[in-house]
Design goal:
Mean pLDDT of chain A: 92
Distance between the termini of chain A: 25 Å
Low-confidence stretches of chain A: none
CATH architecture of the largest domain in chain A: 3-Layer(aba) Sandwich
Oligomer: homodimer
Strand order of the largest sheet of chain A: 4-3-1-2-9-10
Largest interface: A-B, 25 and 25 residues
CATH topology of the largest domain in chain A: Rossmann fold
Structural class of chain A: alpha/beta
Number of helices of chain A: 11
Radius of gyration of chain A: 18 Å
Largest sheet of chain A: 6 strands, parallel
Number of strands of chain A: 10
Strand content of chain A: 15-25%
Shape of chain A: globular
Number of domains of chain A: 2
Order of helices and strands of chain A: EHEHEHEHEHHEHHEHEHEHE
Chain lengths: ~280, ~280
């Protein structure tokens, strides 16, 4: 498939699940003329418990689907585990530019930090990979990472309304996690001024973090940072068309390898608009 | 492998993860002379998001490992998803008796219920299979099922101490879930007198449920019900040896297909004693 419309590039966005729709949401706000193909490899999640070799194979298959079958000219890996463990394998498997979420998150943290100490919260798998710590170190930052395994299920349960009893649970979970992280930070002599949200589910919890973080700490959302970095890179390649009304709304096609019903039901919460019909694709076992 | 010691049968216990250790815990209390081999197919969890065909293949491979390689003479499927979707496939794949967790849970609910209306809480995957509703219907019971997706991660985080701030979160989550379930039960004209804990993680939350359930409702723990049913069946086949001191402590060998470290770290919480060294086994992809 080739795309003759250079001002409307086709951008592939990949995640093991559908949390990466928060990255797509941030992308479409910045690139309203682009066309998007999103793939959630829901049949084979969670990637976090699998080996690097297996994750690389899955991610490469997914990347080839987006590039070869859907014509993507740019790939955003909206999955922390795949970004941490399989970015090289993905880059080797396709001939288009590929961007992960971790590097942009670390760069945005570096741009925001004065003290050069940052806190990172993420899933267990991402923290165990220490990919954020490594990317932060490359920016001259010290990073203290903490796994927050309850936050993804809280988001997927939809307990994100701060005014409700369920939202009060989420607020208390976040208070406990941040208190543990702050205590650890103090014990290690850190002086953090940035908190990196290192999971694509966490942007939905941003209002909770804004009221819970200590004074003087700024929030960096790695989904947003990745979307900004991708937008810069894409605009360098595909000059936005001259000012004027958009000829058509942003086009978004969504694919999943399993659990299409759950994707359609929960996806809109992450994308900020209906995801529409999700197509089931079979990438093998 | 064959076992000459008829009074010390080898019992295989299988789960997709390690929650099934609560069933093993209940079994070893009842069968102190038995030898146990536990397999957690941790490389391929969660089973809940996979198709019946895939789950059947995984579960049959796991069952054959326990019977053919470890000499199990009786199999307990301590996994709700595999019990719901793959019990026939497992029974076809081995020549020893096989017992799941769902049937015994429904039978124990039936024995306890006067009103013939029961409530069942479980994971999303188990509820979507409606296996408990079907098993309860076969006992002449009406069952109302509710998925409680936050409870497994709360248990795995270890937020189970009622006296702590983290335990207060768990108590509030359980209060919300039970309030939703009770409201739905009332709306449907149910008069439940039994609550079935339909997930192998939930026995660790039993103290929370005991203070949270409405008056007149009894708790049935399907892990315990399965262990009781298995004990009856095993004692019918292997007469317990005459009274006298045990010649050796209960022997428990644990195997996992991945995440051995997490198994060793969290498993003791479920088993109620250290799980010891967990052996990694490869059952293929």
């Amino acid at each position: 498939m080739s795309n003759p419309d250079v001002a409307s590039p086709i951008i592939g966005v990949f995640d093991s699940g559908f949390g990466g729709l928060t990255v797509l949401r941030a992308l479409k706000d910045r690139l309203p003329q682009a066309q998007f193909a999103f793939l959630g490899d829901t049949a084979r999640l969670p990637y976090g418990s699998k080996s690097r070799r297996t994750i690389s194979r899955y991610a490469a298959e997914s990347a080839r689907f987006l590039v070869n079958d859907q014509g993507a000219e740019f790939l955003v890996i909206a999955c922390n585990t795949a970004s941490a463990l399989a970015l090289d394998a993905i880059q080797d498997s396709v001939s288009v530019p590929v961007l992960g979420v971790i590097e942009p998150g670390a760069q945005a943290a570096s741009a925001a930090s004065q003290t050069r100490d940052v806190l990172v919260i993420a899933t267990d798998a991402t923290v165990q990979s220490h990919a954020y710590a490594a990317a932060c170190r490359a920016q001259g930052l010290r990073a203290l990472e903490k796994a927050c395994p309850l936050l993804v299920p809280l988001v997927e349960e939809g307990w994100i309304d701060r005014a409700s009893a369920t939202g009060a649970v989420t607020a208390e979970v976040i208070r406990i996690y941040l208190a543990e992280l702050t205590a650890e930070s103090t014990a290690q002599g850190f002086h953090p001024d940035v908190l990196v949200l290192g999971c694509t589910h966490y942007p939905l919890l941003r209002p909770f973090f804004e009221v819970a973080i200590p004074a003087g700490v700024r929030i960096i959302d790695s989904a947003q940072a990745a979307a900004e970095a991708a937008t810069r890179s894409i605009n360098d390649r595909h000059a936005p068309s001259a000012a004027g009304p958009l000829v058509r709304p942003t086009e978004i096609r969504c694919f999943a390898t399993d659990s299409v019903e759950k994707f359609e039901r929960l996806g809109s919460r992450f994308l900020g608009q209906p995801v529409g019909k999700v197509q089931l694709v079979d990438l093998g076992g």
